[in-house]
Amino acid sequence: MPTVSLNVTYTKKLSEINKLQNYVLNSSSLSAKYQHFISEVVMLRLFSVLETSISECAFKLACGANYRSGVSPILLHNCRSMVDAHSNMLTMGRRRPAIYLKWTRADFIEYSIKNVLDTRDSFYRNISYHSLLIDEMRVVRNHIAHGTSSTRLDYYRVLTRLYGGNPRLMMGAFLTSKTRHTNPNIMRYIQVSKIIINDITAG
């Protein structure tokens, strides 16, 4: 039996996300500027939870952990531990070792796992299925964290794709506003993160 479990990852990460959701819900009676601030902080933490969920799931699968459904993953190389999985993903099948692994975009994830986990397996198929939403969240997170001209351009592209035209919403309003949809974007991202974590751990 594997000593690592995706059930543990799933339970722990959903608990963390539920706490973030409570922060958003409990801020609803505050003035807009405080709701904006809280939603941006929550978004930073939320994407971090999603990113670590993806990497932790990949490492555990590489060690032989079953999906929560009991199904075994398709492995190209069986690793002894999560540290070994990390090391093999950096070096296995590469002419030059990767400097680091990245988990914030579907193509980055594919590059990280491709010589250890079969990309035809359920894990990467679910990553690929949710790739547009993962990238949207990455763009939003990056603009909150860095606020550069390049992150702003990526953020405006997200706004155009979601709303059409040439909208220029400030980030806090983008996350909390119910003008266009009754479900604000910060709650949508919370719900989406739960779905992604469920899917990549379920098998």
What does this structure look like?
With 203 residues, the protein is mostly helical. The chain has one domain. Helix content is 66%, strand content 0%. The chain has 9 helices and no strands. The chain has helices spanning 6-26, 32-62, 82-91, 106-113, 122-129, 131-146, 149-163, 171-176, 185-202. Helix 2 packs across helix 3 (82-91), helix 2 packs across helix 6 (131-146) and helix 6 (131-146) crosses helix 7 (149-163). The relative contact order is 0.16. This is RiboL-PSP-HEPN domain-containing protein. It comes from Mariniflexile litorale.
**Number of strand segments:** 0
Q: Determine the strand fraction and express it as a percent band.
A: under 5%
Shape verdict: globular
- Give the radius of gyration: 18 Å
Amino- and carboxy-terminal Cα gap:
17 Å
H/E element string?
A: HHHHHHHHH
Low-confidence stretches: none
The count of domains is 1
Integer average pLDDT: 97
Helix segment tally:
9
Biggest sheet statistics: none
Q: Helicity level, as a percent range? A: 55-70%
Judged by helices, strands and strand pairing, the structural class is mainly alpha
